[in-house]
Amino acid sequence: MQTGKIGVTTENIFPIIKKFLYSDHEIFLRELVSNAVDATTKIKVLSSLGDYKGELGDQTIHVKLDEEAKTLTISDHGVGMTADEVEKYINQIAFSGAEEFMSKHKLDAQNIIGHFGLGFFSAFMVAEKVEIVTKSYKEGSQAVHWECDGSPDYTLQDSNRETFGTDIVLHFTSEDAEIFANKTKIEELLKKYCSFLPVAIAFGKEQEWDKDNKKYVDTDKDKIINDTKPLWKIAPSEITKELYDEFYHKLYPMAEEPLFHIHLNVDYPFNLTGVLYFPKLKNSFEFQKNKIQLYCNQVFVTDSVEGIVPEFLTLLNGVIDSPDIPLNVSRSYLQSDQNVKKISNHITKKVADRLAELFKSDRTEYEKKWDDLKIFIQYGVISNEKFGERAAEFTLLKNTDDYYYTFEQYSDLIKDGQTDKNGKLVILYTNDTIAQHSFIEKAKTKGYDVLVMDSPIESHFISFLEHKNENWTFKRIDADVVEKLVEKEESLAMALTIEQQETLRQVFTAALPKEKEVIYNVEFAALAAEEAPVVVTQNEFMRRMRDMSKTGGGYMNFYGEMADSYNIVVNGNNPLITDILGSVEKEVDAGLTDDARKEALSKAGESNGKLHQIIDLALLGTGLLKGEALTKFIKRSVSMI
Q1: Which of 355, 365, 454, 535 yields a CA-CA distance of 20 to 30 A from 587?
Q2: Residue 571 annotated as binding?
Q3: Shared-domain flag, residues 216 and 311
Q4: Orientation of helix 338-361 relative to helix 363-383, angle to 10°
Q5: Is 463 found in the same domain as 421?
Q6: What per-residue confidence (pLDDT) applies to 419?
Q7: Any idea what the CATH number is for the domain that residue 34 is in?
Q8: What is the pLDDT of residue 14?
Q9: Would strands 518-525 and 564-571 be described as parallel, antiparallel, or unpaired?
């Protein structure tokens, strides 16, 4: 029996491993099973090269849990180790056996996973004691048993194991580790980290229904928990749409059918495989960025892929697998380098190519999918310059009549009727066709076209388009009265003098609802006499800044904290407004002092039922009449009837 100290530079190495080396303790199972896969892959490579001439036997990796004893055993029928190799690869931390094997058999061992030689020691993050029982495939080798309790001290002695391979035994004796001495927990971790490893992994037995005892019972057949040849490892020409959809639901059991997919298969200048799916985003801003799973040689690494794909692509679902993505020592975080940038650019290009292909080959079908694609494409246009340049050819604008246009087509459509006196193209839009119906109808009566722009990031998208196209300006349909949305040279004359407008401003201000959350500004406009006496509008700039603050953050929060602001636009040419002015002038003595006159005008505004009615009708039409003000309006309307 041999005793000794593990070759480390400090006795504090184990606390460091437990606390800092790995960001998530549960990945110990991924590391140990990956090591077993490596060992199994090595013996297969050696056998194929003729360096091992014996029988390989069953290559299945077995994971066995003894809940009563609180032990977990990972068993493989791989290359195993001699006592010298245990001394070299285990007792000398970070001497990677996989790295050494790769250097010797580079062309034949592309699926070897390990790089750092530290994966085994992740076991000590959860186990109080770890045992290794191993025997090398080399002829005449003596099996050995290694044991360590998490200190630098270990024991190494001969064992009676008969077959080559390795058993790793973890003892979960501490209270913190007891969670892992649970079948459901181990099965959950195996499914998360090991579902697509290239060697069969067995955990437990398949079950069948026992009619007599009316319960499920174990059979003699091993329960294989992984798919050794996942979809992304199969040539696209061999895969049907049904198989793509089936794989999608394996990854996301509760998801709706995806819109379409992209199969990645690159072997130069980097190695990259995978399948990405476009989910149905509907019209919600649900940036679920943890849906793309990153694998390295079929080993799950992370679902936080912001470092490897542009941010807008994190809205996609699916799998990326590449051995060329550099990982830090724990495989839990990505390191940025040229390969990552190349892979990121390639994925962006493939996505743009696929969208362009769909648009060109079947525009009608593409238009049907537009509402689900819209947020994704808009986000890409805003956040990624290269994608934005390419997306100009397949980004669509939809109007209220459900017609779809490219940027160029829409510009040609409206340039004659919606170019203002300054030569700017005014693009009108609505974000709510029901609430803004009256504004839309008035615009259509004027011969204007109105777009539907209702995604949560539409304000950002609109501002981006205005920045890229200096001759474009966007106005929501309720940003102003219809006569002023597209300003022309000709305009109607105002019937009210400046003094009369100031008189009515004070009267209207007194009659408006008093709300802390809302600011109302009284304005006057020279509209046709038959137009409504009062229209409620909202300044385009301020409203858009508030909308952007909801998703933008940063300095935009300043606008988000401001109260809502609306314009009460008074039609100075409407007869009702003239009547109200006349009644106020009769009621308020012209010879009053300024202060007395202001007070009298306020009282006149507060008491004028007709004035309240026309204001409330305008507020009601825009959904702003609420609470006590709505109750008063209903009572007043009944009394008037």
Answers
A1: 535
A2: no
A3: no
A4: 150
A5: yes
A6: 95
A7: 3.30.565.10
A8: 56
A9: parallel
Answer for the pair 168, 132: CB distance below 8 angstroms, yes or no. yes
400 and 533 share one domain: no
- Find all residues with CB under 8 Å of 301, minimum gap 6, and list them: 294, 295, 327, 331, 332
pLDDT at 12: 47
Question: How do 201-210 and 61-66 pair as beta strands?
Answer: parallel
Residue reference for tokens 């401001």:
562
Residues of the chain falling short of pLDDT 70: 5-23, 93-118, 282-290, 326-337, 550-561
> Is residue 184 in some structural domain?
yes
| Structural domain count of the chain | 4
Instruction: Say if residues 60 and 224 touch (Cβ distance below 8 Å).
Output: yes
**How many whole angstroms separate alpha carbon 294 and alpha carbon 303?**
6
Query: 121's torsion region: left (phi>0), alpha (psi -120 to 50) or beta?
Result: alpha
Pairing outcome for strands 450-452 and 425-430: parallel
The answer on whether 494 is annotated among ligand-binding residues is no
> Is 160 annotated as belonging to a binding site?
no
pLDDT for 552 equals 59
**Taking the CB of residue 509, how many other CB atoms lie within 10 A of it?**
15
The pair of three-digit structure tokens given for residue 231, joined into one six-digit string: 């979809």
Domain membership of residue 421 as a residue range: 396-485
Contacts of 137 (CB under 8 A, 6+ apart): 43, 46, 52, 54, 78, 79, 80, 164
What pLDDT score was predicted for residue 393?
Answer: 94
The pLDDT score that the predictor gives to residue 189 is 94
| Rounded-to-integer distance, Cα 119 and Cα 21, Å | 10
97 is in an annotated binding site: yes
% of the chain exceeding 70 in pLDDT: 87
Measure CA 616 to chain center: 42
Distance, in Å, from the CA atom of 94 to the CA atom of 640, rounded to the nearest integer, reads: 88
Kindly report, residue by residue over 234-264, the tens digit of the pLDDT.
999 999 999 999 999 999 888 889 999 999 9
Residue type, 220: D
Q: What is the CA radius of gyration of the chain?
A: 36
Q: Is 31 annotated among the ligand-binding residues?
A: yes
Tokens representing residue 402 in the block: 């459900």
Are 280 and 411 in a shared domain? no
Report the alpha-carbon distance of residue 194 to residue 149 in Å, rounded: 27
List the CATH number of the domain containing 439: 3.40.50.11260
Residues 504 and 435 in one domain: no
Long-range CB pairs of 184-189, under 8 A, 24+ apart, other chains included: 186/29, 186/63, 186/65, 186/72, 187/225, 189/26, 189/29, 189/30
